[in-house]
Write a structure and sequence with these properties.
59 residues, little secondary structure, HlyD family secretion protein
């Protein structure tokens, strides 16, 4: 409650989801379709392939 000495426990169902922002470096192929539509600050849905390595990635 607002006037209680202890804050409410988030485990009781009043959890608020907070978006996590992580700085990343993205390389886009110039030949990629519609790459000119990309702008800084846009939101994306990301999937990461952890099975392989790119030829330019460090070992």
């Amino acid at each position: 409650s607002e006037f209680s000495l202890l804050q409410a426990d988030n485990a009781t169902g009043n959890f608020v989801k907070i978006a996590q922002r992580v700085p990343v470096r993205i390389t886009v192929d110039p030949d990629q379709a519609e790459s000119e539509r990309l702008r800084p600050g846009l939101s994306v849905v990301v999937s990461i392939d952890t099975a392989g390595r790119l030829k330019n990635s460090p070992p």
